[in-house]
Amino acid sequence: MSPSHMNPDHPLSIVDRIEAMDHALTVKELSVLHRSSPSWWYQRARSGRMGNAVIRVGGTVRFDPVLTARWLRSLSAI
Question: Which of 24, 46, 64, 73 is the most buried (most CB within 10 A)?
């Protein structure tokens, strides 16, 4: 994490916190961090709009933290 992210005067945004995670995130983890419903994440994963951010392992869905953060940032740029 860069020093600017460590500044207590500038707390991490939700997207920054997602990006800083060191593992593929579950729907439950993203729902808690992003304060959204699990179904919201499942719908986005199913739609294909998130591209390579979605990782499918058998019957489970995981999300790459860096690509998910990038995708979330692109939503705010619209």
Answer: 64
